[in-house]
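Subject: mismatched residue count in predicted assembly?

I count 509 residues in my input, but I want to confirm that the predicted structure covers every chain. Input:
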Amino acid sequence: MGQVLVVTSGKGGVGKTTSTAALGAALARGGDKVVVIDFDVGLRNLDLVLGAERRVVFDLINVIHGVAKLQQALIRDKRLDNLCLLPASQTRDKEALTEEGVAEVITELRTKFDWIICDSPAGIERGATLAMRNADAAIIVTNPEVSSVRDSDRIIGLLDSKTVKAERGEQVEKHLLITRYHSARAARGEMLSIDDVLEILSIPLLGIIPESQEVLRASNLGSPVTLNNALSAPARAYFDAARRLKGEKLAMSVPSESRGILNKLFGRKAA
Amino acid sequence: MSSAVRQRQSLMFRARSYMAFAITPQAPIVDWLAELDTSLERSESFFSGHPVALDLSSVNLSAAAIMHLVENLAERRIRVLGITGVDPAIEEPGLPPILRGGRGPQMTAPEMPKASTLVVNPAPPPRQQPSSLLIETPVRSGQSVVFVDGDVTVLGSVGSGAEIVAGGSVHIYGTLRGRAMAGANGNSRARIFCHRVEAELLAIDSYYKTADDIEESLRRGPIQAWLEGETLKISALN
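Triage response: the counts match. Full output below for your records.
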């Protein structure tokens, strides 16, 4: 049975879609069968970040409404054939999602994949609540600043009350992923420190993704950062996070560009 | 700024308790009404002027039947202020409001808390005794814990945008970043204790201080707050 993960944050623009694509690709690279689902009906992006926007025929809403079969809507990644995308509809809105329809799709995907990663839209409305509804575990994406942290706190409250697991009296496993972290700015007090964020949210840390140009570059090329430049600092941080998701115990560190293997090689050549 | 800020008069919310008779109809209703008539003949003014709560826990009536019963009572000059002992799902326009959270021998089971609003009313104790609510998890932004029957103790933190409303005192062993309101039903002796205050608002019996009114020297430290007359006082707890 596959595990259902929701990537959520409450606040927009913190890196949910980037993280969904990067972690999905990282898990798929490790050999697991992975499907990423875009729940941002009407404002889909995951197809762009995965470079699959030209191959979308059917989408999640079509499957829910019985217009298409699940197999027809799944788009296989060109680089990794064990990574699939279930895109959102761009022409509909979140009202087109139904609780029963989503549950059915997730149940079917559980039998076919090891990981089902749901990319939640921002907000706490229908799209976001349905994305988290069937989750076994949640990745809460947070930037080290106060508004993002408070929104994450709100989302954690919803994960503890509005999910199927919570209603059964169980706990949705929660992982904190801090993105766009800039060590120098945190040291100058311009950002919340990791300790501050952990103190406020009090959930276990999955990883710290450093702020990097590589993320934007990869998105514009339509490639998850973990595939586009696997040795870059953010990619290494995502690979570590993926290994922690699979239960490995790794020391927490913030990879930095200057210590990259490639940079070291180039550094020597230049010298 | 140590002098307290008086609450503006425009908005005062207080939960209050009032005494009311609760009458408990028995099936069959027709016989019970006849019985009632006999009693009323003996003391005609017994119910007049007194609002009455209708406890329907020993009968099983549809909404229409309840409405019919309320009309029958109105004919006997008995005014129903609310009904209790019914399934909350029965609520519909035209019916008297459903009373919840009352103390009585036949109170209904507490309603399940709504998704993000945690409204806790404990099952009635056999005897009226001090009650308290213990919350062992953090209270997250957007969550609201309302407990009018006594003290609330939170072992974790209360997030920014979360609130605790207690009839008695509020005790928070983590950091209070949201709001704490003690003495919500008019108890001016209630207090707020917290291990670390970064609160947005502290209130006791509807007198409040916002974050700006809390002295800087007290912030991020352990405090207690209490009411002296109409002044909300805060001091460090050492």
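The mean pLDDT of chain A is 93. Marking this ticket as 'not a bug'.
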